[in-house]
Amino acid sequence: MLNSIIDMPSMAIMEKAMQAASLRHEVLSNNMANVNTPGFKRKRVEFEKLLSAALYGADNSKKLRLARTNPRDIAVYSQGGNYASVQPVVQQINDTTMRADGNNVDPDREMAGMAKNTMYYDALAREMGAQISNLRLVIKGQ
């Protein structure tokens, strides 16, 4: 029973998202480290679109309507699909060139991406902490 409480889908999804954000930070840092390397092509991490497609389908067709037992119940859709197999994918961007030496790293873009990714990771960490705090309150019975 404890495993069913701890292994909530939302916690598993947030864990995967945090892992993807960590990988994205590594990729962005690597891009910045190679800003002056001739011929280097930047990389990016794809995860959120893959997760959305796994949960809802490419066209959002996997949404399932939950049963309503009372006319006053709010219509809610459950998450369909299998998120467990979704993994972040690192893609190399070859279709652009920023300089004559073939490098396509834009330092401003990479730094903005790092700032955005940091806020994303922090938000996930706060939400996961809040869910753990709520579980702690439920377990204590307060």
Name the assembly state.
single chain
SS element count, helices: 4
Mean pLDDT: 84
How many DSSP-defined strands? Answer: 4
Please tell me how large the radius of gyration is.
Answer: 20 Å
Task: Give a verbal description of the structure.
Helix content is 51%, strand content 8%. It has helices spanning 2-6, 9-33, 48-56, 107-140, and strands at 43-46, 64-65, 77-78, 89-92. The strands form two sheets. Strands 1-4 form a two-stranded antiparallel ribbon. Strands 2-3 form a two-stranded antiparallel sheet.
Please name the defining characteristics of this protein.
4 helices; 51% helix; two-stranded antiparallel ribbon; mainly alpha; 142 residues
Helix and strand arrangement:
Elements: H1 2-6, H2 9-33, E1 43-46, H3 48-56, E2 64-65, E3 77-78, E4 89-92, H4 107-140
Antiparallel strand pairs: 1-4, 2-3
Summarize the structure.
This protein is mainly alpha-helical and about 140 residues long. The protein is about 50% helix and about 10% strand.
